[in-house]
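fwd from M.: "can u put these together and see what the complex looks like"

so here's what she sent:
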Amino acid sequence: MMNKEIIRSERFGEQYSLIHHPSGLDVLVWKMDNYSTTEAMFATKYGSINTCFKTAKTGDFIEVPEGIAHYLEHKLFENEDTDVFDLYAATGASGNAFTTFHETAYTFSTARNWDKALEILLDFVQKPYFTQENVDKEQGIIAQEIKMGEDSPYRSCYFNLLKALYKEHPVKIDIAGTVESIAKITPELLYDCYYTFYNLHNMVLSIAGNVDEDKVIEICDKLLKPAEDLKLECRFPEEGHGVAQKRITGKFPVGLPLFDIGFKSKPCGGIELEKRACIAKTILQLVAGTSSPLYQQMFEDGLINSQFGYSTFNAVDSYFACIISGESKDPDEVYRRIIAELDRVQREGFDKENFEILKKSRYGSMVRTLGSVEGIADSMTESYFNGTTVFDEAEVLAEMTIEDCMAAVSELFNEENSAISIIEPAKE
Amino acid sequence: MAVNYNKTEIGKGITLTRITDPKYKANIIRVRFITPIVPDDLGVNVLLTSLLVTSNSQYKSRSELSKKFLGLYGTSIGAVSANVSDYQSVGMTISAIRDRFTIGGEVISDEAVKQLIKCIFEPDLTDGKFNENYFRLRKQELLDNIAAAVNDKRGYAYMKAKEVIYAGEPAAVSDMGTAERAAAITQEDLLRQYRFLLKHAAIDITVCGGGEIDSAVKLLTDAFAKVERGDVPQIDYLKASPVKEKLCVKEEPMNINQSNMFMAYKTDYPNIYANKLMDCILGGSAFSKLFMNVREKLSLCYYCDSYFSDLKNVMMIESGVDTANIEKAQQAVTAELKAMQNGDFTDEEMENAKLYICSGFMSNYDSEWDIGAWYRVQDTRGTAYTPEECCALINAVTREQIIESAKSMKPDTIFILKAEGGSDDE
């Protein structure tokens, strides 16, 4: 039995549909009038961190090699008789895929034949084909990808930070795994992971832009294979207070030293995650944004440059961290000043005027996202996996007070839960 | 699908381009100063624009100006700088949400444009000098950015490859110039170049977005009408790069894990749409011969793509490859180009490439940034085709023209950033 919800925002005058398809898949459709492009994302709540899990069929928890979610993503592009890119080629669509710590998504973007491209997407993601031969062949390509990643000082700096921040959580492991861990991957393991995580109850289809909802449902009816809910459970080790390492360094042929400074805190989900992410982003802007006194002082002292920035890093009920990044001749001094500024604002409070300005700025940023086909498809998927809607962020932002931010500083930016990763210039 | 497009000359060598479609939620204003590349001026122009976008006579620090723009619903302001063919294009861009999307219909667009105009015409100068501290810091940042080019290995390899591919041409130099020149930039250089750009650069102002732009256009037109203009060069972006008499092979060793290889081919074949289609079938898509055969079947590279520059008539093939496989990868790439020259591609491959390119063209309608970029590219070719018109030109390309294009590609340069060892973590 199909059942549909309309998710509407009076504030923005926009809406999209959430359709609970009888196959077990939830389908999100946002029609954008006068747009040429259609952007689709067929995603599973399965990323590199999901290495320990159980279902109604496995009985006890099982563990699989690191990097297997990413490996699986690569292999799904190969059908028994043809390559998926060849199929897309006949439609004009540009297909792609990515794996993160917490999800794997298969996407296409096209201004032609979106319905045919959607048929290809739904078909190939539901049709795994793994053999010893094609699994062996992929190891060469993925090993090349891992090596390419190892040549990026920015990537190394970031992944080193996660290694330093997290003592136990698998988020400390590179998404692609290692050349050694991917060597343990077999067709059987790939099938086990596929049938566990690519169950339609664990997935979502988001489609935005030039699209017809009835046609989407018709294609879903034709191609989705009803799935039994396997009652999937993933297990993550208890992370606890404190970090694995306060300071971690690496060496690369770089100009200036690079740094990432992280503060981990407890994970959460649903609307609580939306609120916490909103508060964390606002604190980051107030403390380290371009309009903050700290930014101005560090810039004037020649400690930071335009590469300085910040972000939040989180997945529902799994991990949450605030990260500040940049280039500096003295990253340790940057870290020291950030800690000192956090200490100061806890004593003296935030600037009220700056707080109101930043709220307006964030509102403007949300308006922009609603004009981007790709941005909407992304937001629908992300909010769905977080247990929220695309519009919740605006409501949370409207209700957020400066007191909410003040109350959260000590928990979100606890020095004991922080670490710094530095990439120093290697001598040639 | 269509947007309203209009380009007019509003002063000597000053063009105003208006692109609107009511579906866009924001408006972008971009002001570019275009001059022939002068190696000594590259860094000066970059430093100058970085100072202009971070302060003006009213808001004298980055933080103050930033706070002003954040209060205008996060209006962004940024410097733009790029070498396009043998020209340098520098300037600034602002992007503001439309007034109709602010809370309560607050009008922000006029103030955003006024601040942009202040940044251009009323910089924070005292006795002809920028704030000495900011000058010193931004200059150091320019030096840092030049040094940081090495951090992105693919970007660095591309920069070094260009030096060889375009040896002896203005396009050979990097966008920011050299560290030696950057270190020697003075306040006097900046003021001289500021005056020079206002007087002698070709200036393009583009207002692109959802509409309600009349007021912005008037403010900009009035501001630029007051500028005293001198001689302005005629800009002709089409500067075909001459093919070298003998294939040039260069390597640079680096302590990395994976080698980056650029193979450059040059052509005098005049049909750019045939060249683009040939490039797409060969290496410009995920179903191309290079991707399917060199990467997927032979597992020789993690990436192996091609790109065609219609302004320089150069096709570049870029790959990430294990050092031990460099020769094999070169042979595999050469074999795929040979296949194109022999007509070894199906009608289906050709039709698929046409569909793929045209789908990409049409997608430009969906973002004010993309449609703005679309018409900037048109401008470099001296055309103003819509995406539909370019699709028609692509669809008219024949198999014979693709083969002729492939046959016209002459090997010119191979540049390899060669991996020697890897990184160390502690």
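replying to her w this: Chain A has two domains: 3-234, 247-425.
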